[in-house]
TrEMBL record, chains A, B, C, D, E, F:
A GO term from the CC aspect: cytosol
Keywords assigned: Hydrolase, Magnesium, Metal-binding, Schiff base
HAMAP family: PhnX
Gene: phnX
Enzyme Commission numbers on file: 3.11.1.1
Organism this protein belongs to: Zooshikella ganghwensis
Keyword set includes Flavoprotein: no
Protein name per the record: Phosphonoacetaldehyde hydrolase
C-alpha cells in the first residue's frame, strides 16, 4: 500500500526530523473590547482616586505630595494606605498630628472611610464628557463583548456599572483589582476578564487604556491595545482644565502622551474613547490579513 | 524652544497621522510549562475515564460504544452522564434494563458512583511509564513554574497531585475543568492556570498536551504548544498494548498522530513528555530571537 | 511599592537579559524626492557630456571610443580628462597629433574648454521632452521637497537650475559631484542632499535615477528608488532617435533596461519621470503599512 | 530568436505589470561606529555643560532651574543662552540683578565666557572612568571607522579630540552641532559624519548614544543604535555620586533608563561603552542573516 | 578608473563575503488553474470509482468494506485491484466464491471489466450540479490556462474531456495518474501538467482539489491551493444525498471537511468550484503584493 | 454536545469567514541537486558548442560573429542552425560561397555534421578541471539525488554521462533541451528532471548553473539556486586562458559575473562546483528554520 503519509511525515523525538511545519493563526473577528475604567471610560482626568485620598488625609491635617497619588493609582485600596504610611514624610506628619501610626484595625477603619470618599468622588467624575454613544452602538452592532478592568474595589464598581448602563454603556463583565493577585502590568486583570467573557482567542481581544501599565497589561495578555492620550492619567486634568489650555499647551501634552503610549507598545493612540472606531476597523482588517497583536 | 518631539510625532485621531510606529515583543525566558494531565502527565493510554464509565454502565448491563468514550473526554463528569443519556441507543438500553431514565437526583447518585470508579481507574493509571525525572529536574533548574489543567473533578485531582509529587513531579498550580465555564479548545483552563502561576506574559508559557483540543487551547491562549503523539488520546493504548505492536504498526500510529497534532498547529510533536527538553530549549532560543508562539 | 517596571525589564550588559524588545519604524509621509539630473530630469539620451568630450577631442583630431564615454559618466570633469589620458589608444593618438601629453597646467586648460563645451551641449539637451508639469504639480501639492544630485560641475548646474525653474521644475536644493569625496554608488550625494533638505528620516526620501549606480546610491542611502528605463544612460538615444525605432526595437530596449534596473534593486521602474506619480502614491501606502525601502 | 527576457519582464508605466520583483539588502560588515560625545564617550554624568552654564549665571547671582539645564542640552551654545533668556523667571532675576537684558553684542560676550567655562568643565569630565581600551582595540581590529557627533562648539571639540587620542580613543572624524542646521532627533549630525567617514551604506553604521534624542537621530539616519543607560543624561550623576548609591537605587535607575532607551527604539541598551562589544558582534551576525536596523 | 562595483561586491567561495543580497519574487498574474477531476470538477460525491469497484466485485458475490474504497482512490486502476486482493477478508471471500485467487492474466481481464464499469459510472456522475459556467467564463476572461489531473486511466479521461467541453469547461491539458511514477501527495501530476501548460513559474499556478492528498500535491509543487469541502471525497455524498441532510448535519460536515483541508495547508477552502472566483482574485492581489504560496 | 469545532471554524464561500488560518512549510532535507551541464559540470569555458558551430561553418568559408554563438547557446541544435540562417550577414556569406540557402533536407544534413562536431568538441572539454570528487562524495553521503539538465541533444548527452560516471560523477537522471517545449528561463527542464527524480517538494531541490537563464529556470521552478561565476558562460574562457590572466583581470571578471548572477536572484554564487558544499549546508540550515527558496 502506497502510504505516502508515512513517507512524508516523521515525528521529532531525536530520531528523525519532521519534513513539514504547520503554523496556525487566528484570523477571525474581534470578540471583546476590554476597557480600563478610570481615565478611559469614566473620570476624564483620572482624578477621583487622588481626590478621595487627598480629602481623607486632609481630615487629618495631612497634605499628600502629588506624585504619590499617581504612584498608588494601580493598587487596591488597602494597599494604597499601607503604601502611603510607608513614606517617611507622611509618617512624620501623621505622628505629629495624630500620635502613633494606625494599627491594622485602624487601617481597616480608614479604608472604610476612604471607600465612602471614593464613591463620592467617582460619582462626581462618572461621565467622560465625550461622545461614547456612537462607538458603543458600533461595538454592539459588531457583536463585540464589552469588559471592564477597574482598580476600584468591588463595592464602588458595583455602584458605577448600572449608572454607566443608563448612559448606554452596557458592560458584559467587569473585574476588580481586588480579584487578582498581581497589579498591572501583569496580565491578570485582562486575562481574567477575557475568560469570563468566553472569548475564543486572546488575539481576538482589544484592551483600551489611558495608562502605560494598562497598555503593557494588554500586550502581556497577547491582546491588541489602544491608548487614550487626552483622557486619563498622563493629562491628569479635568475636562474644564483641559478646555482652558491654549492650543500650544494641548499640542505639547498630546504629543508627549501619544509618544509615551506608542513607546510602551500601544498599537494605536487616540484622544479619547470616542475615537476608537477606526482603530477597531483597522484591527479587523489586520486580523483578516493574518496579522497578530 | 526647538521642540522636535512635537515635530516628529502626531496623535492619530483623524486629524494628523503618526510618523512613527513602535512594536513591542516579549523576548525573555519561558516562565511556565502547563501540562494536560490524562494522557500527557499520567495515564499513558488516556484510558482511565473511559474505563470508569464503561465499568459503571456495565453494572447496569449497558455497553458503551468506543467512540462515545472519546467524545465525552473533554467534559466535566456530570456533563458526561448527561451527554450519554442523550444518545438514543443508550437511552434504549437503559429503559430496557432499568425502566425509566434517571432523573436529576439519580444522575447525581450515578455521578457519585462514577467518581468512585474514576479514582480507582485513575490511580491504576497514575504512572506514565517513561523517564520524567530528567525533564522535571531540567524544568526546576530553569526556574519554570509547573501548571496542570485536568478534566478530572477537583476531588480526584486533589488525590492525584500528592502522588505525583512523590514521584518528583511537583505541581505549582492545577485547574480542573469544573473551575471554568467552557471546555477546550476554549483557552479558559490554560489562561486561568497561567494567571494563578503569576506569569508575566502569555508568550512565556508552554502548553503540553496529547489531544488536538488541548493544543488548540494552548494556541488560543497565545502560548507555545508541544503535542505528545504516543502517550495519550490518539494512540489510546496502554504501555503494554503499545509494546506488543510491531514496528510497522507503531510507525503508522506515530506518523498519523504526529501529523494530526502538527496540523492542529502544535509547534512541536514528540513521543512523550520525556522528550520535551530539546523543545523547551528551542523555544528559549526562538523567544530570544524575538519569535512569538 | 510594587515596582513592576523593575521586574519586567533588565539591562543587557552581560548580567541579565532584557524581557522586552521594541522596534521603531518610520510610517509617515514622503518628505523629499531627489532626482538625478542628466538622463532623468534633463537630457533624454544622457548624451550631453559625451558630446562635449567628443567635440573637444575632435578639435585635436582624436576619436573617442563610445564605451569610454559611458565609463567616465560618473566622474567630475577633471577626473574625466585624466581617465581618458590613461588609456593607451588615446595617449597614442594624442602624442601622434599633438606631441607630448598634456601636463597639469594644460589639463586645467583643456578642462576649461571642456566646461564651455558642456554648457553648450547641456543647454541644447535641457528639455526632457515628456510631460513633467503634472508630476511636479503633484509633488508640490503633496508638500514633498525636491532635490537634485548632478555630475555636472557647480558652474554648469548653477546655469541650468534657473532654466528648469522657468519650466516649472523648482529645485529646493542641488548637490554636485564636485561637493563630495566619493562618486556613486556611494551614498554621499544623496545623503548630503537629504541633510540640506532637512528631511527627518532617510526612509522618507525617494531617489529617482536613470543609471544603475544612481539606484545603488539611493539604496545605500536607505531610500526608496525609482529607475527610468527609456530616458537615460541605458537607452542613450535622443528623443528623435528613439521615435524612429520600431515597436520591436523599443520593446527590446525597454525590457532590457527595466530588468537591469530592477535587478540592481530599484523599487520601481518606469519609462520617464512623467510616470512616477503612481509610484510615489504606492510608496506612501507602503510607508503607512510600516514597510521600509 | 527566442527572446525569453522580453517574455518574462515588462516595464511598469501603466501599460503592463512587471512579473518579477527584486529586493536588495546590505549584508556586509559594520563599517563605522559613531559615538555621541558627552555622556557616552566622555563626561560620565553628562554634567559639564550644565555646570558651565550654572557657573556662568552664578557670577550674575542667578540660579538656573535644573530641568532647564537638560532642556538646552541639544542646542549649540549661543542658542542655549537665547533659550534661557526667553524664560520668565530667568529674565526677572537678570533684570533684578543686572538691569536691562543683554543685547546681541552682550550675548556674544556671554557666549565667549560660556565657552571658556565649558572648556574648563569639559576637561574636568574628560575621562569616562570605565574600561574603553578593550572595546576600542576590538573596533580597530575589526577595521570599523570611528566617528563622533558632539554638541560642543568646534573650539572645544578640537581641544578634546587629541586628549582622547592619548587615552587610546582615536577618532577618524567628528562633527559639531554647529555644523548642521537641525539638532537631534533630526539625522543631520549622524549622516554628515557617515558621509565624511566614506561609509558605503547607512545600514553599515552603528550610533552609540546616552540620550533618547541621540537614539532617534541614529534611527532616522537608518542606522543601528546602542543606548548607554548608566553613563549619560538619564542618570546625570558623576561616577562618584553613582558609586555611593545603594544597589536598590542603582537598579531602579538602570531599569528606568534602560526601558526609556528601548522604548525610543534603541536596538541594544548597555550600562556604558565598555559593554558594547557583544552588541557589535550581534549586529554583525544579524547583518549577515540579512536583517536591517 | 573608480570601479566601485568591484569595491562593493565580493564572491562567496570561502575567501571574501558578499556585501549585498538580492531576493527575486514572482509578482505577476496567475497563469494556470489545475483541477482535480473526481469530486472537484465532476462527480459531486467522488463516488464513481467506488461504485465501479463495488459493482465489479458484486458480480463475484463480494462485498467491499467502504473504507477500502477510499483507501484505493489515489491509485491507478490495476494497482487498485492488487491492493484489494492483498486484503485478507477479500481474499477469503474470493477464494470461497471463485476458488483460487486471480493470476496476472486474470487480473488484466478484471481490470478491463473495471474500466468498462468506470466509464459507465463516471458518465453518470459527469455533471457537478453547481454553476461552473460563471467561474469558467471568469477564468477564460483572465486568460488563465486550465489543466486537469485525474486518477482515471487515459481511456476514461479521453472520453470525459470532450463531454466537459460541451458543458463549457474547456481543458487545455490533462494528465492521468497512469502518466507518472508516484501518486499524490507527490507533486508529479501537478508539475507534469504545469510544464505541459507552459507556465512560467510554479508560483503562478493554482491547484483546486477536494482531497487532502491533492492539496498536499499542490503545496509540494510550490503552488497555491484551494480545497472544496462539500463536493468530493470527505462528504462522499451525491448531490441528492446532500440535499436531504438537515442544516445541522450539513454544518457539521462542512466544518469538519473545511478544518481538515485547512489543516492540510489549503490556502482557501470553499464549498464547490462555483465559489473559487473570489479566491482567485485574492491570490492575484497577494501575488501583486509579493506574497508566495 | 459541545461541538467546539463547529464553533471555531467556518467555511469561506461568501457566507461566513474562517476563524483560523494554517500555513504549511517544507522543512525537511535537500532531496536533489540538479546541475546544468555545459559550463557548470563539464566544459570550464562553456565553449564546446560555439567551437563546434564555428568549425562547421568554417568548412563553408563562413566566419560566425562571437556574440551570435552566445545567443544560440540555449537552443536545441536544429533551432541553432535556423537561427543562424536568419541572420543577414550569414545568409549573405553563405549565398556568396555556396549559392542558394540550404533547404530543410540540407539543414538536417548540416545538423548531423554539427552533432558529430559537437561530440568531438564536447569530449575535448569534458573535464571541469577542479576538484569535484569531494563535493560529489558529500552529495552521496547526504543521500541527495543528482540530476542534470543539458542543452546537448540526447545522443551527445548519452555519450557523456558514462564518461562522467567514470570520474565519480554519478547522475541519477538527465533531461535534454530536446525533451521539452520551452527553453530556459522557463522551468520546464528543471521540473521535468525533478519529477523524474521523484522528489517530494520543489523546495527540496537545488539548481546549480553558470548562466543567468539557468538561475531563472531554477527560481521559476521554486528551487534554491547556486551560480558558478568562474566556470561557464560569463567568463567564457578555458581553464588555460583563465590561468594566464592577472589577478586584477580575474577580480574584475569574478566581481561582474558574481554581481550578475546575484542580481538574477541566485541564492549563492561561487567560483565553481567545487565550492558548493558550504552552500548546501547553509540551505539545510535554512530549510530547518522554515525558510523557503
Amino acid at each position: 500500500m502506497p502510504d505516502n503519509t508515512s513517507d512524508c511525515v516523521r515525528h521529532v523525538n531525536g530520531r528523525a526530523p519532521m519534513h513539514l511545519n504547520y503554523h496556525r493563526k487566528y484570523c477571525g473577528k474581534i470578540q471583546a473590547v476590554i476597557f480600563d475604567m478610570t481615565g478611559t471610560l469614566v473620570d476624564f482626568g483620572a482624578k477621583a482616586n487622588g481626590q478621595a485620598l487627598q480629602q481623607l488625609f486632609n481630615q487629618y491635617q495631612i497634605q499628600l505630595p502629588p506624585d504619590t497619588l499617581l504612584a498608588v493609582a494601580d493598587l487596591p485600596d488597602l494597599a494604597q494606605l499601607k503604601y502611603l504610611f510607608a513614606i517617611e514624610s507622611i509618617k512624620d506628619q501623621w505622628q505629629q498630628h495624630q500620635g502613633s501610626l494606625p494599627d491594622e484595625k485602624q487601617l481597616e477603619q480608614l479604608n472604610i472611610q476612604l471607600r465612602t470618599q471614593q464613591i463620592v468622588c467617582a460619582s462626581q467624575q462618572l461621565s467622560l464628557p465625550v461622545d461614547s454613544k456612537t462607538v458603543f452602538q458600533f461595538i454592539r452592532k459588531q457583536g463585540y463583548k464589552v469588559g471592564v478592568c477597574t482598580h476600584y474595589c468591588r463595592d464602588i464598581a458595583s455602584d458605577l456599572i448600572p449608572q454607566l448602563a443608563e448612559e448606554g454603556i452596557k458592560i458584559d463583565h467587569w473585574v476588580s483589582a481586588a480579584d487578582v493577585s498581581q497589579p498591572r502590568p501583569a496580565p491578570h486583570l485582562a486575562l481574567t476578564c477575557a475568560v469570563a467573557l468566553d472569548i475564543l482567542s486572546v488575539s481576538a481581544c482589544v484592551k483600551v487604556d489611558d495608562s502605560l501599565k494598562g497598555i503593557e497589561e494588554g500586550l502581556n495578555a497577547g491582546m491588541w491595545t489602544i491608548g487614550t492620550a487626552i483622557s486619563g492619567e498622563y493629562n491628569n486634568r479635568s475636562i474644564n482644565e483641559w478646555n482652558q489650555l491654549s492650543n500650544t499647551e494641548r499640542d505639547k501634552i498630546r504629543s508627549e502622551a501619544t509618544l509615551s503610549l506608542y513607546r510602551a507598545g500601544a498599537h494605536y493612540v487616540v484622544d479619547t474613547i470616542s475615537d476608537i472606531q477606526s482603530c477597531l476597523e483597522d484591527i479587523e482588517a489586520r486580523l483578516k490579513r493574518g496579522e497578530r497583536p
